Amino acid sequence: MSYWNKEDLTQYNHAEEPHYSVQINGKVDISPLTGDKGTEHRISLQPWGMYKLVEEWLQSGHRLSKGWR
Description:
Layout: E1 2-3, E2 19-22, E3 28-31, H1 36-39, E4 43-45, H2 47-58
Antiparallel strand pairs: 1-2, 2-3, 3-4
């Protein structure tokens, strides 16, 4: 399980303990809370779902330089 730093999150974040985990099979879980209380709000992505998310984000007109992409 990995946690985001406060600097990683926007002012609109309301999750108490936002974290994610990358499973050995490539699946990714994102949750606002740790432990059992976070499972009912968890987002769980297949590897191709994670690819789709990152691909769309990279193509979205955000302000990251090519070096950061």
